[in-house]
Design brief:
Helix content: 10-25%
Structural class: mainly beta
Strand order of the largest sheet: 2-1-5-3-4
Radius of gyration: 11 Å
Order of helices and strands: EEHEEE
Oligomer: single chain
Strand content: 35-45%
Shape: globular
CATH architecture: Roll
CATH class: Alpha Beta
Number of strands: 5
């Protein structure tokens, strides 16, 4: 599977959860939203080898 965050891309094997994949690439799971193949998913979703996981930074303000 391909994991994309900002200008970086990683290739990982499927079979892990979204949360595990986010941690494996060194990103804080609490700081991003995950889109698998363009669809928002939760952190317990199991990823497959052919998935593309795009991470989008959560922006907050006040």
């Amino acid at each position: 599977m391909k994991v994309i965050y900002r200008d970086k891309t990683w290739e990982l094997r499927g079979g892990m959860t979204v949360r595990d994949a986010i941690r494996k690439v060194g990103v804080d799971p609490e700081a991003v939203l995950a889109l698998r193949n363009g669809v928002l998913v939760n952190e317990e979703t199991i990823l497959e080898d052919d998935d593309e996981l795009k991470l989008v930074a959560v922006v907050s303000g006040g």
